[in-house]
Design goal:
This protein is α/β, with parallel strands linked by helices. It has 2 domains: 1-30; 47-191, Glutaredoxin. The chain has 6 helices and 7 strands. Strands 2-1-5-4-3-6-7 form a 7-stranded mixed beta sheet. β6 (154-158) and β7 form a beta hairpin.
């Protein structure tokens, strides 16, 4: 009798699981955000708050930076392995990657306090945007997938005219050619 009850329960579980899978398979997919802006397209405008090693809140707007080359670099989390590699490279090779007249804006979901602490400890020469509600990341299709609270690692170079000059939807922090392509895109954007 115990075996037949167990078999009946197992059969019920299998049927219920199969029905659930069919419901999930027929469910509408979650709405996708806007596609990532591509080279040549107008960069989505934004207003955000950044900070640097001083901890002071710095209001930033893309429209306010018109006439300058802007590097908008989304990354997952402050002080994580790949992010430390990337932002340390930005700091150490700032002159060759970016040079004068370029506004570099690393952006993550971390708070202004987290950014200020990391910027102070690491001596970063740039302000960092705190996009705690992922509004900016959503505009640039850089928000994390599913329930992940952190951002994808993406980089956009925005030209003086407000258009995307370069887009890297997956930036590899360990590949020298990723930085070479970024430097070349910044150089081209500065010349235009």
């Amino acid at each position: 009798m115990l075996v037949s009850i167990r078999s009946a329960l197992l059969a019920t579980f299998v049927v219920a699981a199969a029905a659930g899978a069919q419901v999930q398979a027929g469910a509408a997919p979650a709405p996708a955000g806007p596609p990532a802006p591509a080279a040549g397209e107008a960069a989505p405008d934004f207003s955000a708050t950044a900070t640097d090693s001083t901890g002071k809140a710095i209001p930033i707007s893309l429209s306010g930076l018109r006439g300058k080359v802007v590097v908008l670099a989304f990354y997952p989390l402050d002080r994580s392995g790949g992010c430390t590699i990337e932002l340390s490279k930005f700091r150490d090779d700032y002159k060759t990657l970016f040079g004068d007249g370029v506004v570099v804006l690393p952006t993550s979901i971390d708070s202004l306090g987290s950014h200020a602490s990391w910027a102070k400890d690491a001596h970063f020469p740039f302000a960092m945007i705190a996009d705690t509600k992922a509004e900016l990341a959503t505009k640039y299709a850089s928000q994390g997938a599913g329930n992940k609270p952190y951002f994808k690692r993406t980089v956009f170079v925005i030209g003086k005219d407000g258009k995307i000059a370069y887009a890297a939807p997956t930036f590899n922090v360990n590949a020298a050619d990723a930085y070479d392509k970024l430097a070349a895109a910044v150089k081209t954007a500065k010349a235009n």
